[in-house]
Amino acid sequence: MKLSRLLYPLYEVRLRRELSGARQPKHIAIMADGNRRWAREAGHADVSHGHRAGAKKIGELVQWSADTEVEVITVYLLSTENLRREPAELQLLFGIIGDVVDELSSEDYTCRVRLVGHLDLLPLKVADRLRQSAEPTLAREGITVNIAVGYGGRQEIVDAVRELIKEEVEAGTAPAELADKITADSLATHLYTSGQPDPDLVIRTSGEQRLSGFLLWQAAYSEIWFTDTYWPAFRKVDFLRALREYSKRSRRFGK
């Protein structure tokens, strides 16, 4: 353990040197997975320890990113499927996510916080708390942090189609012409992440190797990096390793 503590700073310096001048992602998306498993394997009977440790890691990630070329971070915290969990765990998660947004919205950070998801699926008090904390940060300069809560990739596309059709109907578009109005570009303007670049790199922790509905539209050509490390145990060197791996890949965008 002592040897590891001595070697990690040296390894971090090496990774930074390798990243110097290399191509880096502008938008990274994080599937912060493995909180509950980390807690159980650490001997905690109460999985809330994992959720809290994972929440703390988000602020650390934002600070790590400040020293890179990353401009947008999207963190997957609560999916539409997660809303089916036991009420007690959901209430815990709502409180922790609220704390995360409060922290990122504080004066300790200079990031813009955007809420990405179908917030109407959340309890009203929870959604209001998130909005009230995030809204004042939108005028800031700095990294944009998207908090994906109540998020589902399929739901996002459905919502985008509905919004586009509603907009066209209100503009007086005839029913027979609606189909022609639905294009990749027009739908993209109604996604939760409208106005932002698609993620260059998707990182998923905990060993799972699937997108699980995360940014289905936006991640079509993203590079994906998987690690067995649980999210609460994710370190700065793991983050830098992901950036290094990205820098070595050749992005073809389907060509």
TrEMBL record:
Q: Lipid metabolism: is it a keyword of this entry?
A: no
Q: Which InterPro entries match?
A: UPP_synth-like, UPP_synth-like_CS, UPP_synth-like_sf
Keyword annotations of the record: Magnesium, Metal-binding, Transferase
Binding positions (Mg(2+)): 33, 223
- Which GO molecular function annotations are given, in alphabetical order? ditrans,polycis-polyprenyl diphosphate synthase [(2E,6E)-farnesyl diphosphate specific] activity; magnesium ion binding; Z-farnesyl diphosphate synthase activity
Q: Which SUPFAM superfamilies match?
A: Undecaprenyl diphosphate synthase
- Which BP terms from GO are recorded? polyprenol biosynthetic process
Per the record, GO CC terms? plasma membrane
Q: Where is the active site?
A: 33, 82
Cofactors per UniProt?
Mg(2+)
Q: State where substrate binds.
A: 34-38, 51, 79-81, 85, 204, 210-212
Cofactor binding annotation: Binds 2 magnesium ions per subunit.
State which Enzyme Commission number(s) the record gives: 2.5.1.-
Q: Decide whether keyword Metal-binding is in the record.
A: yes
Q: Which NCBIfam families match?
A: PRK14828.1, uppS
What do we know about how this protein assembles, alone or with others? Homodimer.
Q: Identify its protein family.
A: Belongs to the UPP synthase family. Z-FPP synthase subfamily.
Function, in words: Catalyzes the condensation of isopentenyl diphosphate (IPP) with allylic pyrophosphates generating different type of terpenoids.
The protein, known as:
Isoprenyl transferase
Gene name for this UniProt entry: uppS1
